[in-house]
Specification:
- It catalyses: (1R,6R)-6-hydroxy-2-succinyl-cyclohexa-2,4-diene-1-carboxylate = 2-succinylbenzoate + H2O.
- Its EC number is 4.2.1.113.
- Pathway: Quinol/quinone metabolism; 1,4-dihydroxy-2-naphthoate biosynthesis; 1,4-dihydroxy-2-naphthoate from chorismate: step 4/7; Quinol/quinone metabolism; menaquinone biosynthesis.
- By secondary structure, the chain is of the alpha/beta class.
- The chain is built from nine helices and 14 strands.
- It starts with a strand and ends with a strand.
- It binds magnesium ion (MG).
- Magnesium ion binds next to loops.
């Protein structure tokens, strides 16, 4: 006996969440629940506005079509990659939970964001017990970014710094940034995500300045393949934008084979999807701090609680059922 249900949620965001110049005041998405012989599995389908190519309406229509077929036959599409990434991820995750294949323990460690004040960072790192922190760069002056990064690395001796430039810099700007990082501190920059406008420029930057990089936007480009390179230390994997769990696991394995880290990262999923990402991270990238510290952008949690979050938890049963069979 197979049953499938789709619910729609709408969660209020903290003020000031901006995605590529677009304000996001609420997060909308779908929760799928599969039930077979009393066992259940859930997944979240939540295209991210201005990042996902599919809209929520498109994802919903496709999910209903695929779920109807599954409910009748027990079969999923042969090719998960033919589905929208958010749909492929949510449905395959629900099936994985149903199979009992997702481990219960999660990796809830977060890399705290550097504010520029070493004392604040030391206090925050002290609580988490790990030494990886994050810094957004490329929004202001490259020189300022370089000075702050240098200061933090100098002030916190075991710090490993991850940075994200979101392809902001031309090579000359990136060089200004690098100039302010003392050469002996550069190895403690875990990586900078996509420093330059093009992957070629980013690779050249890494080689010239001795600062490792990571691929993020590039991972979602159609012809991306994992290629070993001494200066590429990680790939960032955002499952909602990538697709099925099997595709995610394959990318993780390719990265590990190439000697890189794979950093599982969030696309503003609700706490339900986010805790599943934490479990996926614990299971498949156990040595790496994932990029899942997005819950503080919400005003509520949904269905499942993130450990130690003080945000109120909305009951899943209160969400609108939009389709059921
Ligand atoms: Mg990034």
């Amino acid at each position: 006996m197979r049953q499938a249900m789709l619910q729609r949620y709408s969660l209020e965001m903290d003020s000031g969440v901006i995605l590529r110049q677009q304000r996001l005041s609420q997060r909308d998405g779908l929760i799928v629940t599969l039930t077979v012989n009393g066992f259940t599995g859930q997944g979240e389908i939540a295209p991210l506005p201005s990042f996902s190519e599919e809209t929520l309406a498109q994802a919903q229509a496709q999910a209903i079509e695929v779920l109807s077929h599954w409910q009748e036959t027990g079969q999923w599409p042969d090719d998960w990659d033919a589905l929208y990434p958010s749909v492929a991820f949510g449905l395959s995750m629900a099936q994985m939970e149903l199979d009992g294949a997702l481990q219960p323990e999660g990796n809830y460690a977060c890399a705290p964001l550097c504010s520029g004040d070493p004392d604040v960072l030391i206090a925050r790192l002290g609580q988490t017990g790990q030494r990886v922190a994050k810094m957004k760069v490329g929004l202001y002056e490259a020189i300022r970014d370089g000075m702050i990064a240098n200061l933090m690395l100098e002030a916190v001796p075991e710090l490993q710094l991850r940075m994200d430039a979101n392809r902001a810099w031309l090579p000359a700007k990136a060089a200004q940034f690098a100039k302010y990082i003392a050469p002996e501190l550069r190895a403690r920059i875990d990586f900078i995500e996509e420093p330059c406008r093009t992957p070629e420029q980013s690779l050249a930057f890494a080689e010239i300045h001795g600062i490792a990089i990571a691929w993020d936007e590039s991972v979602r480009e159609p012809n991306f393949t994992v290629q070993a390179n001494p200066w590429v230390r990680a790939i960032i994997i955002k499952p909602t934008l990538i697709g099925s769990v099997s595709r995610v696991i394959s990318l993780i394995q390719q990265a590990h084979t190439a000697g890189m880290q794979a950093v599982l990262s969030a696309s503003l999923e609700s706490s339900l999807g986010l805790t599943q990402l934490a479990r996926l991270a614990a299971q498949f990238t156990p040595m790496t701090v994932p990029g899942l510290d997005t819950l503080q952008l919400f005003r509520q949690q949904l269905g499942r609680a993130w450990p130690e979050s003080s945000l109120p938890l909305q009951d899943l049963s209160l969400q609108e059922v939009i389709w059921q069979r």
